[in-house]
C-alpha cells in the first residue's frame, strides 16, 4: 500500500489571489475534494497576525482553506466539470498550505537551516510551489491545461519522495555538529510534527486529484474514491499489515509470533467493522506497531519454545473506533515512553541514505509519524506499557466520517511565539539519585 509523502513553500511575490477561510473538511468531503469549489475568503497575507516576518518581502500566508462538505459535487455525475473544479481549487489551496509551512521552516534555528540536507529540502519546496503557481492564470476550460496540471502534481509528488529521510538526515547533521541543545530540540520536535502533518495533508490532496483524473483505475481497489475506501474493513487492513511485518520478522529472526484478532461492534454485533478511511494511512500505523511488537516479542522470548501471540482488539462505539495491539515483549519503562515519539531519539543505528534499506529504518520516525497519521483525522496513537510484561498500543479513530476532519497546522502569531520561546527553569523538585538519610541528616 502506498504511504503518503511530500512538500513545502517559498516567497509568493505579490500573488494575492490565493484565498481561504478557516473551514475544515470532514473525511467524507475530502473523499470528494477534487470535486469541490474553493471557498472565497481573504487574500493571502491580508489579515494574518503581525508577527515579524522571517523573510523580508515574503507575504504572510493565509489559513489553509479546505472545502466544506456543503460545497461537495458528485464526481460521478459532474463529468468534466469535476476535474475543472478540482484544478481551480488546488491551484489556490496548495500554495496556501505550502506557504504556511515554509514560513515555519525559516523559523528553525540557523544552525539547522544551514545543514545541506535541510537546504536541499527547501529547494524542493521552492520549486514545487513555483510549479503550482505556473497555473494561476491558466484556463480550466483547456483540456491540455488540465492534463499538464495533473502531470505537474505527479512530478511534485515524485520530487518529494525522499523528504522524510532527507530532513531526518539534516537533523542528524545538526546533532553531530552541535550536540544536544534543549531549546533547539524542543523547537525541532514542534516543527517536525507540524511539517510532516502538513505534508500528509498536501499528499492527500495531490493523491485525490491524480488518482481520480489520471485516466486510469486501480483494478485491485475499484470501489476506492481516490485513496479513500468508503467501506474500509479494519480487520482486513490489520491482517495485511501483520502479514507484511511477519515476512520481515521471519527473514531476520527465523520466527514470528502469531496473530489473534477480535472485533467488537457495539453498534451492530452481527456486522463486521467497516469505516470511511484511507487504508494506506491505517496500514502504515499498524505495520509500524506490528514491527515493534514482533521485535520485542522475539527478542524477549528467544529461549522460549513458543512465542506469545500478538493480540489485536478492534472496537467500534458511537464516537470512536479503537484498535488495541497487545504484546508480551517485556514492556518499556514509563520514563522512556515519550522519548519513543521523539524525532531526536532512536534505538537503532543511524542509517545511510541511498543504501536500499527499509524506509526510515534507524531514524526513529516510525512511531512519531504513525501518530501523525492518526491525528490527521482527529484520532490519536497512545502507548501503555508495563515494564516486565508487555505493551498495549492503541490507535483511536473517529467512528463517523463527519467527525473525521483534517487537523492542519496554521502559521500565526501563536506559532511564531512558540519558536521564540526559551527554556524556562523547572518549577518542580527533581529528586537526587541518592536521597538523604533523614536519620543522620542535620539542619545546618
UniProtKB/TrEMBL annotation:
The keyword Zinc does not apply. CDD domains: HATPase_PDK-like (cd16929). Its EC number is 2.7.11.-. Transmembrane segments: none annotated. GO terms for biological process: regulation of glucose metabolic process. Residues 1-77 are annotated as: Disordered. InterPro entries: AK/P_DHK_N_sf, BCDHK/PDK_N, BCKD/PDK, HATPase_C_sf, HATPase_dom, His_kinase_dom. Coiled coil: none annotated. Residues 279-401 form the Histidine kinase domain. PANTHER family: [PYRUVATE DEHYDROGENASE (ACETYL-TRANSFERRING)] KINASE ISOZYME 2, MITOCHONDRIAL, PYRUVATE DEHYDROGENASE KINASE. Belongs to the PDK/BCKDK protein kinase family. This is Protein-serine/threonine kinase. It comes from Dromaius novaehollandiae (Emu).
Amino acid at each position: 500500500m502506498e504511504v503518503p509523502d511530500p512538500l513545502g513553500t517559498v516567497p509568493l511575490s505579490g500573488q494575492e489571489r490565493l484565498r481561504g477561510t478557516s473551514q475544515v473538511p470532514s473525511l467524507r468531503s475530502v473523499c470528494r475534494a477534487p470535486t469541490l469549489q474553493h471557498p472565497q475568503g481573504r487574500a493571502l497575507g491580508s489579515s494574518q497576525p503581525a508577527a515579524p516576518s522571517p523573510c523580508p518581502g515574503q507575504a504572510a500566508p493565509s489559513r489553509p482553506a479546505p472545502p466544506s462538505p456543503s460545497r461537495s459535487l458528485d464526481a460521478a455525475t459532474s463529468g468534466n466539470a469535476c476535474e475543472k473544479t478540482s484544478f481551480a481549487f488546488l491551484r489556490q489551496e496548495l500554495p496556501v498550505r505550502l506557504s504556511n509551512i515554509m514560513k515555519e521552516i525559516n523559523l528553525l534555528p540557523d544552525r539547522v537551516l544551514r545543514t545541506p540536507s535541510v537546504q536541499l529540502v527547501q529547494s524542493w519546496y521552492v520549486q514545487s510551489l513555483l510549479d503550482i503557481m505556473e497555473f494561476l492564470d491558466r484556463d480550466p476550460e483547456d483540456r491540455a491545461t488540465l492534463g499538464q496540471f495533473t502531470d505537474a502534481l505527479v512530478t511534485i509528488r515524485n520530487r518529494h519522495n525522499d523528504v522524510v529521510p532527507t530532513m531526518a538526515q539534516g537533523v542528524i547533521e545538526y546533532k553531530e555538529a552541535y550536540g544536544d541543545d534543549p531549546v533547539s530540540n524542543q523547537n525541532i520536535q514542534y516543527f517536525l510534527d507540524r511539517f510532516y502533518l502538513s505534508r500528509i495533508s498536501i499528499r492527500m490532496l495531490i493523491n485525490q486529484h491524480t488518482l481520480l483524473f489520471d485516466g486510469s483505475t486501480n483494478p485491485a481497489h475499484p470501489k476506492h474514491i481516490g485513496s479513500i475506501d468508503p467501506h474500509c474493513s479494519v480487520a482486513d487492513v490489520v491482517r495485511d499489515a501483520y502479514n507484511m511485518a511477519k515476512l520481515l520478522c521471519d527473514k531476520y529472526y527465523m520466527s514470528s509470533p502469531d496473530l489473534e484478532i477480535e472485533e467488537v461492534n457495539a453498534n451492530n454485533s452481527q456486522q463486521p467493522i467497516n469505516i470511511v478511511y484511507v487504508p494506506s494511512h491505517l496500514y502504515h500505523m499498524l505495520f509500524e506497531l506490528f514491527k515493534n511488537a514482533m521485535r520485542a516479542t522475539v527478542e524477549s522470548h528467544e529461549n522460549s519454545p513458543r512465542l506469545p501471540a500478538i493480540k489485536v482488539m478492534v472496537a467500534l462505539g458511537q464516537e470512536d473506533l479503537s484498535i488495541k495491539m497487545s504484546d508480551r515483549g517485556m514492556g518499556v519503562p514509563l520514563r522512556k515512553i515519550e522519548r519513543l515519539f521523539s524525532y531526536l531519539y532512536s534505538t537503532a543505528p543511524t542509517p545511510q541514505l541511498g543504501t536500499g534499506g527499509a524506509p526510515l529504518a534507524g531514524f526513529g520516525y516510525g512511531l512519531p509519524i504513525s501518530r501523525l497519521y492518526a491525528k490527521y483525522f482527529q484520532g490519536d496513537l497512545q502507548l501503555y506499557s508495563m515494564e516486565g510484561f508487555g505493551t498495549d498500543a492503541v490507535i483511536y479513530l473517529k467512528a463517523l466520517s463527519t467527525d473525521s476532519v483534517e487537523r492542519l497546522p496554521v502559521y500565526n502569531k501563536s506559532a511564531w511565539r512558540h519558536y521564540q520561546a526559551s527554556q524556562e527553569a523547572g518549577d518542580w523538585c527533581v529528586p537526587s539519585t541518592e536521597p538523604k538519610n533523614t536519620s543522620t541528616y542535620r539542619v545546618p
